[in-house]
């Protein structure tokens, strides 16, 4: 999901110090288990307590510090297995869209396999669409209590609410009792998690089939899903089973259900499986979806049914619109990947965006396949939402994502950068959210954060800076730019970071933005310390070990430490920034460089005491300097007959990080020293034949997390070049804000 540019357009430099934290309601579900399925409109309300004793993930679950076991999720995939993933679920769905009422009627056959060694009597499902049924949902309660907004701030108005209703649930023909539960202690009026109490327990290593009839009312597009006019983005639209984690998986010590409520800033987590979905829409509608289209569409009574099938994914979304222009279709091939069919769906008003979105997708396929691992699927579908459906943009699903649309996408403009970046970002989720399938509820840094980092690496490799000009400014010759990581640094909290990167998605003081920016910059700084090649080698191995599984943060940490061979550096960064939130704030506190001149006083000469008076010394010093200049007519300023004592005091007001201090002298020589000690300050000194010119911490620009780069350097004489250099970085960010605001 893209986040950054919506904040830029809102005028924030997105250090969002909004009061936050997870909402804890004082109303808990009450009542007893029903003997039969209650009416869909009046479900039972019970605490989230499983009859079979299987626990649920904690409401405050976050960073996992214990590595998963080698056989977690069936062990590393070798490519020799019958399927790409260890499929746990199968969804067979028939769905019909009424585009006038914005309703989807669905019949779902859900097959679920119990991987555990205990019988399962109750299963838990997500009903994500109920986040939009009213202001009492966890999602909208958090939005209301925090006085916050989701991305661009679109609100649901009267008649625009959405929901999902369960009309029938059965197992082997027997009705299944069900009830809403609240695993995160959210408000009783939240209906985003439901528990099915099964008539027949699912035995270990056995499977069960659930028949579910449902109706989904789409909301006016607000957060990742919904409609505007004839455009429909249908995401998180069907009953979706939670994840039963086993011992050794993401810190679990016993089987547990991981099934959180739908929070304002949380996304998703699900098992891999097979999706076989038949979508029926009016004939005039163009349809795009996750997976491969099977055969020719079937037309009947003015309606058309299309069948899409995709294995080894963990979600399914689709779009339908009667205004879609003629799609752009192309192919891509790469080593280790099948031939990939790329389709770009776009509205007529954003025709200028379709070609660039296609090219960015092809470039992303190449970059991610080369730097992480081959893309394993046969399709990519890119959807550009129409005007006024902006909230449908910037969202990812397996093999399918939404981008951004602009009427003008000229190269080297702010709009083109945003179009390219959002396309790259959403494609990249296909790896970190899709193939690596991390838990976006509890450990969002593994998806949003790592994806942001890898996207910026791609921009860096492309040589693509953030161009700040609007088309008009470009025409008149004003086209400043800033590098991708400098842009990211400018938008993150540095002075007072409040939330560890490993914190969950919903309990954060500074909102979700730092998950993107601070993770990307932290990984960039780690790469600068240990090297680009070791970092890329480690990420390739992370992908190899954990694709088609569900790694935790500890699994990332261990892979980086093992492959790079620099465990101390990796563990230090994770301790300072992932499990804690520590600012980096080193600076040059003082720089002096003074001649070591003869001093007044008394001394013994031949057994007698002689006094060196200041006036006599001044004459001797002047004579020595005059003789020096005659003997060295081309000597640099700052050299002479007497040595110079140079002292540099460095201060630390944050995390201990390995620093390099570079001191340059007037004769062209320099001194480089390391400052690795965990101390608040240190003084370095030299006696050299030349005066110091400057002192600089972090000359290689390793530490972008540092609060201010303006105080990393000093000169003996006044010199504004450092201020101008780093001041331009700030100015560039300010310019980015205004130009992006002006461009839309």
Give me a quick take on this structure.
By secondary structure, the protein is α+β, with helices and mostly antiparallel strands.
Shape: elongated
Major sheet description: 9 strands, mixed
Low-confidence stretches: 4-48, 728-744
Number of strands: 37
What is the rounded Rg? 31 Å
The CA-CA distance between the termini, in Å, is: 20 Å
Helix content: 10-25%
**Continuous helix count:** 13
Structural category is: alpha+beta
How confident overall, as mean pLDDT? 90
Strand content: 25-35%
Task: Give an overview of the whole structure.
The chain is an alpha+beta fold. It is about 25% helix and about 30% strand. It has 13 helices and 37 strands. A hairpin with a 2-residue loop joins strand 11 (about 225-230) and strand 12. The longest helix has 22 residues, at about 415-435. The two termini are about 20 Å apart.
């Amino acid at each position: 999901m893209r986040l950054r540019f919506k904040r830029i357009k809102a005028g924030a430099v997105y250090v969002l110090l909004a009061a936050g934290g997870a909402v804890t309601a004082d109303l808990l579900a009450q009542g007893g288990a029903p003997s039969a399925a209650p009416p869909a409109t009046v479900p039972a309300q019970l605490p989230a307590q499983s009859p079979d004793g299987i626990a649920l993930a904690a409401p405050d679950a976050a960073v996992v510090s214990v590595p998963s076991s080698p056989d977690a999720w069936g062990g590393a995939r070798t490519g020799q297995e019958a399927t790409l993933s260890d499929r746990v679920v199968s969804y067979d769905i028939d769905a019909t869209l009424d585009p006038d009422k914005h309703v989807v009627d669905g019949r779902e056959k859900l097959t679920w396999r119990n991987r555990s060694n205990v019988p399962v009597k109750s299963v838990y499902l997500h009903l994500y669409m109920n986040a939009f049924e009213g202001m009492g949902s966890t999602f909208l309660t958090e939005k209301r209590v925090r006085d916050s907004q989701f991305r661009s701030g679109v609100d649901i108005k009267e008649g625009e609410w959405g929901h999902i209703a369960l009309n029938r649930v059965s197992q082997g023909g027997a009705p299944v009792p069900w009830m809403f539960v609240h695993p995160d202690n959210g408000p009783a009026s939240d209906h985003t998690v439901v528990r099915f109490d099964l008539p027949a327990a699912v035995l270990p290593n056995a499977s069960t089939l659930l028949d579910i009839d449902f109706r989904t009312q789409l909301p006016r597009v607000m957060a990742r899903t919904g409609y505007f006019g004839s455009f429909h983005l249908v995401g998180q639209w069907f009953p979706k089973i939670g994840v039963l984690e086993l011992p050794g998986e993401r810190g679990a010590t016993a089987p547990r259900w991981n099934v959180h409520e739908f929070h304002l800033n949380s996304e998703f987590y699900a098992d891999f499986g097979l999706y076989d979905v038949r979508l029926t829409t009016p004939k005039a509608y163009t349809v795009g979806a996750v997976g491969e289209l099977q055969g020719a569409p079937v037309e009947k009574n003015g309606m058309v049914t299309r069948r899409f099938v995709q294995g080894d994914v963990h979600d399914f979304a689709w779009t339908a619109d009667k205004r879609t222009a003629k799609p752009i279709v192309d192919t891509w091939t790469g080593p280790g990947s099948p031939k990939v069919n790329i389709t770009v769906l776009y509205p007529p008003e954003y025709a200028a965006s379709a070609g660039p979105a296609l090219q960015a997708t092809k470039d992303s396929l190449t970059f991610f396949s080369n730097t992480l691992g081959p893309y394993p699927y046969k399709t990519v579908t890119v959807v550009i939402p129409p005007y006024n459906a902006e909230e449908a943009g910037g969202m990812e699903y397996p093999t399918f994502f939404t981008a951004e649309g602009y009427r003008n996408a000229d190269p080297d403009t702010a709009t083109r950068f945003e179009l390219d970046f959002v396309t790259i970002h959403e494609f990249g989720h296909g790896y970190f959210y899709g193939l690596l399938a991390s838990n976006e509820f509890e450990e969002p840094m593994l998806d949003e954060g790592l994806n942001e980092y890898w996207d910026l690496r791609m921009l860096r490799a492309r040589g693509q800076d953030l161009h700040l000009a609007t088309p008009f400014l470009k025409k008149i010759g004003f086209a400043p730019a800033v590098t991708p990581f400098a842009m990211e640094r400018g938008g993150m909290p540095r002075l007072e970071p409040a939330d560890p990167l490993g914190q969950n998605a919903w309990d954060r003081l500074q909102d979700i933005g730092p998950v993107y920016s601070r993770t990307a910059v932290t990984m960039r700084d780690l790469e600068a310390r240990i090297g680009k090649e070791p970092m890329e080698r480690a990420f390739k191995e992370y992908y190899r070990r954990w694709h088609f599984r569900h790694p935790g943060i500890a699994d990332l940490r261990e892979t980086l430490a093992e492959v790079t061979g620099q465990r101390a550096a990796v563990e230090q960064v994770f301790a300072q920034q992932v499990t804690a939130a520590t600012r980096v704030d080193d600076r040059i506190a003082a720089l002096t460089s003074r001649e070591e001149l003869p001093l007044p006083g008394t001394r013994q000469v031949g057994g007698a005491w002689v006094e060196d008076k200041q006036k006599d010394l001044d004459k001797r010093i002047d004579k020595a300097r005059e003789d020096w200049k005659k003997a060295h007519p081309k000597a640099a300023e700052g050299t002479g007959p007497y040595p110079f004592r140079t002292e540099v005091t460095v201060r630390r007001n944050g995390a201990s990080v390995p620093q390099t201090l570079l001191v340059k002298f007037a004769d062209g020589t320099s001194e480089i020293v390391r400052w690795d000690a965990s101390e608040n300050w240190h003084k370095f000194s030299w006696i050299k034949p030349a005066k110091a010119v400057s002192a600089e911490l972090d000359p290689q620009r390793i530490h972008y997390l540092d609060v201010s780069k303006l105080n990393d350097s000093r000169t003996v004489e006044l010199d504004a070049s450092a201020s101008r250099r780093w001041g331009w970085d700030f100015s560039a960010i300010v310019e980015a804000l205004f130009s992006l605001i002006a461009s839309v």
